[in-house]
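TL;DR need structure tokens for one chain.
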Amino acid sequence: LSVLQESLIWGYAISPLHTPVRFPPKHDELSLSNVLRADDAVLMFFSNDNVMNVCLRCNGEWSSWEIAQKENWRSKLQEILKSIRKGDSYSELPLETSLVEFRKTLFPDEQWKRLREASRWVVIPDDDLWLFPFELLLEEDSAIGTPAIANRSVTYLPTLGSASYFMRTKVSQNRATLLQTPGFFASKPDGQKSIANRLAGLAATNVVD
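>> reply
TL;DR here they are.
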């Protein structure tokens, strides 16, 4: 289980509400194949103590490996985020160099080659990797390489089990989901009016507060 899934289970354990008998729900390869394209790559991360476990699905085949804490992936990630937020002058290495080193930390050469062949990445992060924009990974080892997003799309999911819901092939183009913090509209009346006008013509709207 990922850290997020484990937290949900603990929440169910202490909650007075009804809990499904089976959690997380069971999903098989067939149900996954029904919502994925043939050239999709599914990339899942699971944090377990001091080890980050990685699973990769390409062309219907699964592979896995581990990233040990000794690889210092957390510190490398923090350098990248610092460079993105404040600029290279605040980091020990240029952003491009840090991205190449981080990619080599996350992916063995053989797995990176498989991942590059996919036209869409379905990424399921865990732990601090939720902070990392995988679309910025550079295709080549060179610091002037092409970012991954230039050659493919990147989709993020909270869990693999949610793929059947979020990645249905036929998605209504007349529906919107609005994410907002509590009290957002109260503090921004002008924004409320603008968004309300845009949502007025949609068939249905989900509001997550």
